[in-house]
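Deviation from plan, reported transparently: zinc ion complex.
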Amino acid sequence: MSAKPADATRPRAGGDTKKVHIADTALTRQNWYKHVNWLNVTFILGIPLYGCIQALWVPLQMKTAIWAVIYYFFTGLGITAGYHRLWAHCSYSARLPLRIWLAAVGGGAVEGSIRWWARGHRAHHRYTDTDKDPYSVRKGLLYSHLGWMVMKQNPKRIGRTDISDLNEDPVVQWQHRNYIQTVIAMGLIVPMLVAGLGWGDWWGGFVYAGILRIFFVQQATFCVNSLAHWLGDQPFDDRNSPRDHVITALVTLGEGYHNFHHEFPSDYRNAIEWHQYDPTKWTIWIWKQMGLAYDLKKFRANEIEKGRVQQLQKKIDQKRARLDWGVPLDQLPVMEWDDYVDQAKNGRGLVAIAGVVHDVTDFIKDHPGGKAMINSGIGKDATAMFNGGIYYHSNAAHNLLSTMRVGVIRGGCEVEIWKRAQKEGTTEYVRDETGQRIVRAGEQVTKIPEPIPTADAA
Ligand SMILES: [Zn+2]
Ligand SMILES: [Zn+2]
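Because the crystal trials were delayed, the predicted structure below was used instead.
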């Protein structure tokens, strides 16, 4: 069924099945309120604002403050150890009591159901930084932190992921079906009950351990989507945005080693060094000792190191590319030997070493071995002199020399070393991933393996 183009402008009787999602229309002064996800605005901005206002009247008791911090860790770990590392990534397995606990306290963090959260997070990993990433940092830091929830998103835009395992988990299903009840019970009633029954501070429990604690847990864990894709180093891969930083780790209960995490998502750890802050990892490990968690997954150190070495290599390549290694040999003009000798005779300070001609005119006065020595090589084949005949030049000297090269002597002429190299095919060079030649110490073209003894050096 295809409509003629003219029909498209006419009003139709009945609903249009291809209705455009509000997120795919331009934001204007008339329709902006339709773009806003008001339910989320209530949960992540409205209720916290109400809590802040209430806090002006409700005094904060010490016991309630301590309880709020403890409950902050419980609910925060519900997200990091539960929603994230258990359900989104299956980086370990948990026995039923622990799964129920994590589904409960995770619900108390008020960040959506496990099913909804894990699905979005799997899309985030699969389509990182693309349009299908539900909280792509490429759309801005604020978008990745809050904007993606505050503004309506077209659910069809989010990348597809497999959540069949979550659909088979009765705890996940139960929590998804009873999500609002879970939020009210674990987000507000439980923290209020503990403070109320414990030390009579009902209202304080509600405001501080309930509402304001929700606000802090939300903002902290949202940082995994924003800060962890914006601040820090990329020791494993720098092609995408995830980064490692201790500040993010401190804020997010250890989720701050996010470059590692995106490379090795099914590892139950985020921090691999003992001194890095990852309380989520420590907690999972304790649960294992208690028999509540098992099958903790880890990538082999060998695999982790490979990634690190490759990234280091890439950084070295970038550093190397910024340095002057001299004109590449294949881009140098070819000179006849006689032409070389003639030019040197006519006052140009040319020195041929290993078949490569160098213009040392401006360097003669700076030569550490003195003017006379360098002058003695001009217009000659100075290969042997340079490589030990007179002085066994340093690695730095070979490097410096390469920046002065201006030509190569035509093959099959006077320069024996160059000839030999061409014959043996040893002019094949190691190149980095951008095709730049890698010149290792001792492998400069002017360097010959054995010092050449000459008559006057003997
Ligand atoms: Zn991420
Ligand atoms: Zn993740």
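Residues 84, 88-89, 121, 125, 261, 265 surround zinc ion (ligand 2) (CB under 6 Å). We consider this an acceptable substitute for the interim report.
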